[in-house]
Amino acid sequence: MFSTDDTIVAVATAAGHAGVGLVRVSGPAAASVGFGLTARTTAWPPRHAVRVSVATVDLTADALATFFPGPASYTGEDVLEVSAHGSPVILAAIVRRSIELGARPARPGEFTLRAFIRGKLDLVQAEAVRDLVAAVSPAQVRAAAAQLEGSLSAALVQQVDSLRRLETLLEASMDFPDEGYRFIEPPEVHAALAAVAQGMACLVATGGRGQLVRDGARVVIAGVPNVGKSSVFNALVGADRAIVTPIAGTTRDLVSERLVIDGALVVLTDTAGLRDGADVVEAEGVRRASAAVDTANVVVVVLDGSRVMSDAERALLASVADRAHVVVRNKADLACAWIDGTDALPVSARSGQGVPALAAAIARAVSGLGGGDAESVLVTNERHRVLLARALDHVRHAAEGMATSGHQLPEEFVVADIRAALLALEEVTGRRTADALLDEIFAGFCIGK
Ligand SMILES: Nc1nc2c(ncn2[C@@H]2O[C@H](COP(=O)(O)OP(=O)(O)OP(=O)(O)O)[C@@H](O)[C@H]2O)c(=O)[nH]1
Ligand SMILES: [Mg+2]
Known about the structure:
Blueprint: E1 8-11, E2 18-26, H1 30-38, E3 49-55, E4 60-68, E5 79-86, H2 88-100, E6 104-105, H3 110-117, H4 123-134, H5 138-149, H6 151-175, H7 186-205, H8 207-215, E7 217-222, H9 229-237, E8 255-261, E9 264-270, H10 280-295, E10 298-304, H11 311-320, E11 325-330, E12 345-346, H12 355-367, H13 382-404, H14 411-429, H15 435-443
Parallel strand pairs: 1-6, 7-9, 7-10, 10-11, 11-12
Antiparallel strand pairs: 1-2, 2-5, 3-4, 4-5, 8-9
Helix pairs in contact: 4-5, 6-7, 6-14, 7-13, 13-14
Bound molecules: guanosine-5'-triphosphate and magnesium ion (MG).
């Protein structure tokens, strides 16, 4: 299924016209494909760009060719990269000629798959490559780059090593039951399991913040009717996305937009103005608005600075007081009707005044979510989180079994849990992974990566 003895080729840069485009060739025939493409006959200098002329049936193109001999290359095998002027016609001609010379078109993610198969990357790092390419926010880039560097893998290796050591010592004790000799005493087993469980629990706990980085924080705009919620929403989105009218009760349904605000990926939602006694349609809108506020990560309360604050607004402010929130005093272009002793941000959705400060406040509120150190290892991938949680369950099960039995739990039971935990952890890093899963993971890549 995952043969690596042939040579693959693909355009590595994005589709379309660009200043420069890159064709990547990987496999045992990379050097010779390069000779055929360029009429070069002498060996490629390793990792040095060489100016070449690529001749195909249709055209001749100036290019730079760089040869990376394996195993010190991205894929671990010989790689030739050809950078040419970024016309899709030129790049397609180079790919076609490479195929005539013995390469075959690469499948999505196949370069990275080869790097994984050759042990250049583990599965966590390979998935980080995909996430890095797909990143839309700086936080996503930072998380993926840290995972690619191996921060998560290193944390996992540490847990795997501890569990392996325990497994080995317990197995040795099981092999000599009659001597009554133990290679490791139960209290030490218990302490080691507890330490592993604690480390893994910390990793699993980062999954909440990891999910925010991956999917974006839910930021919900709320307030009473007509204060300018939809106008603020549109100002943040930078487009006339939600309907704005002078009539109170304009917005009925939730309107959501996924966007990056000041570097923070958010799903921003505009809601119906909160009030009682509205018609059936609006009442349903209010119900949806309340539900959205309840499940929001950050609530942006919009107040109308030109009107006196109502009881409903005071109640709304009180209800978000101990949650992540930002208060906006909108219509700052009009005369102010209340002296605010609050930390409300003056904003005019109409003139744009204060909108950058609001964006910054939202980004700050998002970055403060979920606690934890921003630079620590972050589990952003749901596959990893589920497997880590499973491993943690097994380790806890063993540790609790030892605790409740007064360290009398037979070694077999502890070893069975340790093995199950190891299985889950090794599935994270890809040491034990079914081909079907690899297919699924790498199918999510772009071709050429
Ligand atoms: N002067 C001024 N008017 C504004 C500002 N923002 C919104 N408005 C006006 O206030 C009215 C209501 O604006 P919307 O954005 O529809 O208010 P909303 O809170 O979404 O209203 P509902 O959806 O009905 O709850 C419109 O006439 C807007 O033009 C502002 O910053 N200054
Ligand atoms: Mg509205």
